[in-house]
Specification:
Blueprint: H1 7-28, H2 30-33, H3 44-55, H4 58-61, H5 63-79, H6 84-102, H7 107-131, H8 139-171
Helix pairs in contact: 1-3, 1-5, 3-6, 3-7, 3-8, 5-6, 6-7, 7-8
GO biological process, one term: regulation of cell shape
Protein name: Rod shape-determining protein MreD
Membrane topology: Multi-pass membrane protein
Length: 174
């Protein structure tokens, strides 16, 4: 008899893999991704959370709780500034869940919702860093040199992973 791994376990393992891939990709390709004046920031952690919104059971997986937990770890491990992503990740997950419920469940709706999620995540991160004096770029510089390239990179990641991760979630539905 073949034993099935619960989708909650797959979700948690995938969340931590995405978390570490964020840093690994940034480190390995730093010469290309962070070439002055542009910054292409991979957000695979948010991608995993948003794809769980699309394909998983949000109440069963406790997505907002896991978003806060991974946000806390993200803050401690990557930014050193506690409190920014602890609040931004759950907010973006909730926003994307709310918007996705109003749209038909398909790839284009998911693409639009992920576009919105990345925009909110990166923009709120910029606002928080500008508020404490860590970011000194103008809004136009931020939009051209950080937001647009980050959106492009992450939307490519989303397009490449949407169908395989959807198949993973569908194969574990009960």
């Amino acid at each position: 008899m073949k034993r099935r791994v619960p989708i909650a376990a797959i979700f948690i393992i995938g969340l931590f893999i995405a978390f570490f891939l964020d840093g690994s990709i940034s480190q390995m390709f730093s010469g290309t991704l962070f070439k002055y004046p542009n910054a292409l920031v991979p957000n695979l952690t948010l991608l995993w959370l948003i794809l769980a919104v699309f394909f998983g059971n949000t109440q069963k997986l406790h997505l907002e709780l896991w978003a806060a937990v991974i946000g806390f770890i993200f803050d401690m491990y990557y930014t050193g500034l506690l409190g920014v992503y602890v609040f931004i990740f759950p907010l973006v997950v909730y926003l994307c869940y709310t918007v996705y419920q109003m749209l038909p469940p398909n790839f284009l709706s998911g693409f639009l919702v992920y576009f919105l999620g990345i925009t909110v995540l990166v923009s709120l991160g910029f606002v928080a860093n500008a508020f404490i004096g860590e970011a000194d770029a103008s809004i136009s510089e931020f939009m051209v040199n950080t937001l647009a390239p980050t959106l492009a990179l992450n939307l490519v990641f989303m397009a490449l992973s949407y169908f395989p991760i959807g198949a993973l979630y569908r194969s574990h539905k009960r």
